[in-house]
Design brief:
Layout: H1 2-15, E1 20-22, H2 32-44, E2 49-52, E3 55-57, E4 60-61, E5 68-69, H3 73-84, E6 88-90, H4 92-98, E7 110-113, E8 118-122, E9 125-131, H5 142-154, H6 161-170, H7 173-182, H8 188-197, H9 200-207
Parallel strand pairs: 7-9
Antiparallel strand pairs: 1-3, 2-3, 4-5, 6-7, 8-9
């Protein structure tokens, strides 16, 4: 048991603070019962933090206040997707806010899933996942789906050159290249806008 306990905790430490894990992430280390007991001991001992049923993380700490920092919302979403073997994407309003395209801060981060609806409370934050039909969920990498959702939320008339340039600046070259590949999953003006965002020539012109 001590060996499983150590291996589980080492995985938390090696992955870095802030990453959210689910129980299934450790089943290569031992039986479900052994992993559950190790996670329970680590959480009760204060070595890790339990966020909700089957959700754990090693929190980052606010250096000034010395208090744990909640994990990134996308980390929670990714963990929930693995936990339920479902697809998850941010709602349009949440995606627009995360990309800095909206000044309206959602009271609760809302994500859409083709799995079951649920709520996860992390400190004072309530994380909401709502069921949606699979056809209403964008396909692609997490970053690409965030862009697609934000564009859809803003609407074609509101997406101008400034919005495109802002998203282009936010995305790394790697994410822009992936967005270009994922554009084939989007339809109409969103696909074309994604191609404009990923246009490296446009980036060079802007920087020049």
């Amino acid at each position: 048991m001590d060996r499983i306990h150590s291996m589980v905790f080492n995985r938390f430490r090696k992955s870095g603070r802030g990453k959210v894990f689910i129980t299934k992430d450790f089943l290569d280390l031992g039986s479900r019962e052994a992993v559950d007991q190790a996670l329970s001991r680590l959480a009760k001992g204060g070595d890790i933090r339990r966020l909700g049923r089957g959700l754990y993380h090693l929190p980052r700490t606010n250096s000034r206040l010395g208090i744990p920092i909640n994990p990134d919302a996308d980390e929670i979403a990714d963990a929930l997707a693995r936990q339920t073997a479902s697809r998850i994407a941010p709602s349009g309003a949440t995606a627009a806010n995360r990309l800095g395209l909206s000044t309206q801060v959602p009271a609760k981060p809302v994500y859409l899933t083709d799995g079951r609806s649920r709520r996860v409370r992390v400190g004072n934050l309530v994380f909401v996942v709502k069921h949606a039909a699979s056809r209403n969920l964008p396909t692609g990498s997490p970053v690409s789906t965030t862009v697609f959702q934000a564009l859809h939320h803003l609407g074609e008339d509101a997406v101008n050159a400034q919005v495109i340039a802002r998203i282009r600046r936010i995305l790394s070259p790697k994410h822009r290249a992936r967005l270009l590949r994922d554009a084939r999953y989007a339809a109409g003006w969103i696909a074309e806008t994604a191609r404009q965002i990923a246009d490296t020539n446009a980036e060079g012109t802007a920087n020049g």
